[in-house]
Each structure stands twice: as C-alpha cells, then as structure tokens.
Batch of 2 targets.
Target 1
Amino acid sequence: MFRVDLEYRIAGRRVSQDEWVKSIVDEARGAALSQVQAKVESLRCPDHGRSPRLTAQVPGGTDVNLSFDVCCEKLKDAIMRLLR
Ligand SMILES: [Zn+2]
C-alpha cells in the first residue's frame, strides 16, 4: 500500500493541518499589524508632541479592528493620511 505522510510542524512541534493553517494566517496578520503600529507610533502631534496609542482588536476570523487614542484632530488626521 502506498501512503504519504504529511507533517505540519511549528517550531519543531507537530501540529494538525488546521492549526498550521491558522498559524500562517496569524503570522501574516501579525506582520501587517506591527508594520502599521510602527508607522503610527512614530508619528508626533505637531501641537502637543504626543504620539498616538494604537489598539488592535481581533474579534474573530480575519477581521482586525484598529482604534487610536489621540490628543486631537490634527494627530488623527495625520494617522488617516498615513494609512490611506
Ligand atoms: Zn495634539
């Protein structure tokens, strides 16, 4: 009998295919998120000199909700321009 064994491993640990696929999705999402985060957090408000605080929420599936804690509209506008 001919049989093919497929192994999925994450950091040396053997996992199920489902787990493996999920981890790939999470990794891609995590990488995209940290890029956005780095960009946003390097911003400074021209008036108050403060940087925004970014909150990312993952409600489920592949959705990510981003929210920003800002000191004023100017900083918010700067973020929107950056992310556009
Ligand atoms: Zn401000």
Target 2
Amino acid sequence: MIKLKSYGLILLVMSLVGLLFACGYSEERERREREERWKKIFAEQEEIFKRLTPQEHLAKMKEIKNNRQARERHFNAIPKGTLEHEEALKFLEEENHKKRIEWARKMQNDMLDIGINFEAWTKGKNDTILVYKYLHLTPVRIHRIEKNFRQQDMREIGFKKVILMDGLRREYILWEEEDDYKRRCERCGAIVDIRTCYSQEKLISFGTLKAPVTEYYCDTCKSILSKLGEGAGDVPSHK
Ligand SMILES: [Zn+2]
C-alpha cells in the first residue's frame, strides 16, 4: 500500500514537470512567432516607405503632427532640388512662424500667471526676433534668465535673436544666432566667422589629461604665419 502511494506521488510529480516544460515550450514558440510577425510587418512597412513618391512623402509629412522622428524621415526622403523639397521647406517654415508667435503669447501668459510684470512679442521679417519686456529688469533677473535660457528650442523653431527690455525700453541682447559663429582670432584677436575662417585642432594639457581644442585664425594671420613657415597654431596668441 505504501509503495503504491509513492508510485502515485512520483507519477504526479513527473506529470507536473512535463506540464511545466510544455508550457515553457509553447511560451517560447509564441514569443518567436510574435517576433516573426513584427519583423514581417516592419519589412512590409519599409517596402511601402521605399516605394513612396516625393509627393507622397510630402503629403505624409504634412499629415503627421506629433511624431517628429517620423516626420523628419519623410522630409529627408524627399530629394533636394525638387519642387516637393521646396514646398516641404515652405510648409515647415510657415508652421515654425506660427510657433514663434505662439511662443511669445504663451510666455506672456505664463509670466502674468505667476505675477511677473511682463510682455513678450515678436518682430522683424517673419517674426524671428523675440522681445521680452520686464518692468523691472535687475542684474539678478538678467543673470537668472541667462542661466535658464534654452536656445536650442528657440533655434529649432527659427528664432534668430532674443532681446530683453526694461521698463525704460533699454535693450539687452540675450542671444543672437550670429554670435554662435563668432570667435576671436587666436593671434590678433580680430573677430572671425567660424563657418568661413581657417581653423585647426590643438591638444591642450590639463595636468595629465590632454583635450583637443579648436583655434581660429583670421586670413591675415594665417597668411603671415604660413609665410613664416609655421603652422598657424604653432604660435600661441600670447607670444
Ligand atoms: Zn588674426
């Protein structure tokens, strides 16, 4: 009788283990099938994307509202130099133009909501200049604004300049896109435009660490230095 009981127990345990294996197996198979299905859907989507004409990419781009990545993908698929590319650019600029005006309006409301005497408006051709007017513009406030200023968001919607103004309508330039490209010549200190001037990388030591820095030179200094037979960057500015 005892023996029979233990046989029963062994059988029970064995069938439980078998069941668990079977479950695990079918789960694994289901997972693989799901993966295959997704791969197939993805490949089909890719095929459809590849077959779209520039006009269709343009239409899709206009349709998509909240998925920036998907939008950019359609935009990038439109060949440059086509009418569709031109229209896409125009469409994006019109949209950004609205966003810039909306930015000023929202900023003003938000500031008034928290009790700050503040006005904001856009100006210039296509509203690319933003003016923030504070009734009381103290050095502390300017410092705080500068610290929290996020130019990337503004750049993305096409702002080129941000001006702070006080109650007496005195102006202070907070940020100007052009400034991002301005540096001083390493040798003479003249202002150069980093998009067009000569530059070279140089390694600078910080203790045991070496870090690459870019040095910029004006045309005059560059030609003087190359006549002397020295690389422009071989002559430090303080010499
Ligand atoms: Zn120079």
